[in-house]
Design goal:
Helix content is 52%, strand content 10%. The protein has 231 residues and is α/β, with parallel strands linked by helices. The protein has two domains: 132 residues, 3-Layer(aba) Sandwich (Rossmann fold); 87 residues, Arc Repressor Mutant, subunit A. The longest helix has 15 residues. About 7% of the residues have low confidence.
Length: 231
Amino acid sequence: MKILIIDDHPLVRDAMSRIVVELAETVEVLEAADCARGLELARDVPDIADVDLVLLDLNLPGVRGFEALEQFRREYPALPVVVVSMYHDGDTVREVIRRGAMGFIPKVYSKEIILGALRLVLSGAVYVPPQAMAQDVGAPAEQSPGRAAMSLSKLGELGLTPRQGQVLALMMRGLSNKDICRDLGLAQRTVKLHVTAVLNTLRVSSRTQAVIAAVQLGLNAENLARGAGGR
């Protein structure tokens, strides 16, 4: 496994390097202090497909705001990029996901949460911090009954059933169809029908696009599951 870490603070790069080496038996870490060097390292890799993940700080010298993310998306659209930042308000998180990042991890998170988030992204899902997406300041989304009701109401507006809401919630958590079957006790054919309905309703063609669309609509996996009667 090969992971590129781009951050202008040596201590942050060192801390992230110590964390990501736990993702697999063999992890090669590439480090860069700015976007230009990060792109240079990516270009030096004989096959860019060998790079499994890019961890990118938003506040880098020489670039503004989301510019570094946009440069990576333009040059390497298939390369998973996760933004790791100290700024994790809802607007910033939503904008990062809208611009094509596969996840957003606040720097204040513990090692265990960071590893879980990165494993989710490596499985093909999009990771979004639920606290950053909560609309009620100081109230994490997964603990707010009001937010659960809002999620359920949004499902109705979209034309999704509560069961399809549960399926969407599990998709947002990175579960495969097989895992969703096991979690909900449904037949594989039934889950496939629900997934297809979710994709059609959100007007997307892939699970990743569905997750991004759900986040942009303000939906939250925990509240979707709770509002629809899930675990």
